[in-house]
Amino acid sequence: MKLLSEESSEGGVAVSGRVMSLLLAGFVLVFVGIAVIVVASLVFGNGGSVGGVILIGPIPIVFGSGPNAAWLIGIGVVLTIISVAAFFILNRHTKRSN
Asked: Residue 12 gets which letter from DSSP?
């Protein structure tokens, strides 16, 4: 079973339908999750907390508001550190295997 097809005539690499469907499913799940959170906040009207981390290159932008924002920001920072570490570990592992 092939995971990658041969190069297309346009110079790009065509990926399998499974990879594209997983990518599309990921985007759909993110948007559905955001919609559920927005609808829940509108219906229940609780003044909830919000926090997040946006990475632009190696520079994190951390934001948050509400009573539990510090916890949400902390969890976001920890998940960011884990993601960046996993990227470097997997990148090094890929270079070694080639």
From this structure: S
- The predicted pLDDT at position 13 comes to 66
Inter-CA distances, 18 with 35, 68, 69, Å: 26, 39, 38
C-alpha span between 81 and 72 (Å, rounded)? 14
pTM of the model: 0.49
pLDDT band at 47; cut points 50, 70, 90: low
Task: Identify whether the C-beta of residue 80 lies closer than 8 Å to the C-beta of residue 57.
Answer: no
CA-based radius of gyration for the chain: 19
Q: What angle do CA 19, 20, 22 make, to 5 degrees?
A: 65
Helix, strand, or coil (residue 61): strand
Q: Considering only CA atoms, which of 90, 61, 93 is closest in space to residue 77?
A: 61
d(CA 69, CA 22) in angstroms, rounded, equals 32
